[in-house]
User: Which sequence fits this backbone?
């Protein structure tokens, strides 16, 4: 069991630890009331889905699968609609199709959605002109509008976030169960606005090749292969707002321990990964597979001590380490961590987040990321893992299926002038469809030879 230390654990034991990035709710009784209501609502995921994902992540640790984790930087209540959800799913399905075709490996598909409603911030307060207000911390906490009323943390937003997450999960499950992800018809996954993409021809060739392979296998089998009608799909979010996560942490029949039933694969952000912090305390006791963001300031000793707390039994599929160093720092910072973890024989899933270490601001005031830096960090990550004798088992990306212009460069070479055309994110810049598909093709070119060697 994860919480196998002598120190007792309970879903609320995090309250005795220093807690960072949590809002200050003005009404404690309203917070307690919202938590009690959450405890009575149905769970969003099941324990057997969680354990199935853990087994798949264990196989990814061994190089037998590849993890694709992607979605919005921060979901908003307003964008809980069928078009945005289905477009996001299409992007991830198309990326996974490219990866399966090129890597010749099963892909573990994990969406950053159905719960990604809270965000850490670098400052508690935000100032515009002469007015200073609490920072926007995601729709689960407060509103993005720069008004005193909107920025007050409201615990009732947790109930709304649960409802929006349930709607998203229900729609995604319905799409997948209804054949939306059917490999017999991958051409249905297209997005109309990218018909003229520079990668459209290459992608269509892949689709045709997979269709030919499916028909060939079914000819040999003498009938339709029904397991190609659907795919496994899982959810993830940064489990930042601990009052919400605590209320969703439950015991289930015929399974020991506690499960966070708000998501399959929660992670700890870089700002809240302190060894003696509240988030680490909470995560050490749940049975879900978990992950931790690892930045350039983390030392080998700090990382090993954190691993000892979060995965004391070296359990297969239990722990993912999402390194987010930045293209400029990864070559200097990552190798020592890889060597230390390998030397100690720790079983982890290494994942590359090439987004968060490459954020910058443009001369015209937009927060953005350069595609060239994202690409460089992924390429360097593959090379550094190969040199260390470790496996890069997945990628973690912020992306959308909408026609946004938030990241510079890519196939259409977006410039600073392009950013103002369709910059829609409420927090961090995301890859659009073309850029996301280009990343998938890059991974195939870098990882493919390693997988087949």
Assistant:
């Amino acid at each position: 069991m994860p919480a196998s230390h002598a120190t007792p654990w309970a879903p609320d034991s995090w309250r005795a630890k220093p807690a960072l990035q949590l809002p200050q709710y003005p009404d404690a009784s309203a917070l307690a009331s919202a938590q009690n209501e959450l405890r009575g609502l149905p769970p969003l995921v099941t324990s057997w889905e969680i354990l199935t994902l853990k087994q798949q992540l264990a196989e990814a640790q061994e190089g037998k699968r590849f993890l694709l984790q992607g979605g919005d930087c921060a979901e908003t209540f307003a964008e809980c609609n069928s078009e945005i959800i289905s477009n996001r799913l299409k992007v991830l399905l198309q990326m996974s199709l490219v990866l399966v075709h090129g890597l010749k490996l099963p892909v573990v598909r994990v969406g950053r959605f159905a719960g990604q409603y809270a965000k850490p911030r670098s400052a508690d307060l935000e100032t515009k002109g002469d007015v200073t207000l609490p920072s926007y911390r995601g729709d689960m906490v407060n509103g993005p509008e720069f008004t005193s009323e909107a920025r007050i943390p409201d615990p009732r937003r947790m109930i709304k976030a649960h409802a929006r997450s349930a709607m998203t999960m229900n729609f995604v499950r319905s799409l997948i169960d209804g054949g939306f992800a059917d490999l017999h018809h991958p051409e249905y996954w297209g997005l109309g606005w990218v018909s003229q993409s520079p990668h459209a021809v290459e992608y269509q060739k892949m689709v045709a090749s997979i269709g030919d392979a499916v028909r060939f296998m079914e000819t040999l089998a003498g009938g339709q292969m029904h397991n190609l009608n659907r795919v496994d799909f899982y959810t993830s979010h940064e489990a930042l707002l601990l009052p919400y996560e605590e209320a969703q942490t439950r015991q289930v029949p015929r399974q020991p321990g506690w499960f966070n039933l708000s998501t399959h694969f929660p992670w700890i952000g870089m700002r809240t990964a302190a060894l003696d912090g509240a988030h680490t305390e909470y995560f050490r006791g749940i049975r879900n597979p978990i992950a931790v963001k690892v930045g350039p300031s983390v030392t080998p000793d700090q990382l090993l001590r954190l691993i000892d707390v979060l995965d004391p039994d070296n359990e297969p599929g239990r722990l993912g380490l999402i390194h987010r160093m930045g293209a400029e720092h990864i070559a200097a910072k990552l190798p020592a961590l890889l060597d230390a973890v390998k030397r100690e024989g720790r079983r982890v899933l290494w994942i590359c987040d090439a987004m968060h270490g490459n954020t910058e601001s443009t001369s015209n005031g937009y927060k953005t990321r350069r595609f060239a830096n994202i690409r460089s960090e992924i390429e360097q990550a593959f090379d550094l893992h190969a040199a260390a004798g470790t496996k890069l088992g997945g990628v973690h990306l912020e992306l959308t299926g909408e026609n946004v212009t938030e990241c510079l460069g890519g196939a259409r070479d977006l410039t600073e002038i392009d950013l103002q055309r369709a910059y829609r994110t409420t927090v961090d810049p995301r890859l659009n469809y073309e850029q996301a598909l280009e990343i998938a093709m890059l991974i195939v070119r870098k990882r493919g030879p390693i997988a087949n060697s």
